[in-house]
Amino acid sequence: MPEPQPRRRLDQPRTPGRLRVSLDREAFGRLAERLARFLGTGTFLFWQTLMVVLWISLNLAAVSLRWDPYPFILLNLAFSTQAAYAAPLILLAQNRQDDRDRVALEEDRARAAQTKADTEYLARELAALRLAVGEVVTRDYLRGELERVFRERRRQVRDDVPS
């Protein structure tokens, strides 16, 4: 007679079952991107073309090895399966790229806004410096004023000296 199972308490979470698959989404995403990137290469197309030519050649020429006769239904099934897996992998890779592009665009916008704010600040500082420099005595102005004061002083000294 089977033993009665203890009653489960509804106010406590379940204990995890024995068969628990944990999937690292980032690792799977990186794998999907690498696979999608490989599917678009000339190497993949070369090997796939070679496999199709060998498949068809063996099924047409080697009478004893015919595992897929003329309409090549098994080959079509293999291509359909490949397409059924390739399309979602390519879409996953594109979605991940879109996410990266969105983050990069947001960072670029923030950087552009900061650069604009910095540029506006520097323009205001430069304008303030130009105004301040306009009020500062320059070397030429000071030299001219000193020469004028010396001339006036010499004239006063000459005028004050009795003849």
From TrEMBL:
<dbReference type="InterPro" id="IPR010406">
    <property type="entry name" value="DUF1003"/>
</dbReference>
<feature type="transmembrane region" description="Helical">
    <location>
        <begin position="35"/>
        <end position="58"/>
    </location>
</feature>
<keyword id="KW-0812">Transmembrane</keyword>
<protein>
    <submittedName>
        <fullName>DUF1003 domain-containing protein</fullName>
    </submittedName>
</protein>
<dbReference type="Pfam" id="PF06210">
    <property type="entry name" value="DUF1003"/>
</dbReference>
<keyword id="KW-0472">Membrane</keyword>
<feature type="transmembrane region" description="Helical">
    <location>
        <begin position="70"/>
        <end position="92"/>
    </location>
</feature>
<keyword id="KW-1133">Transmembrane helix</keyword>
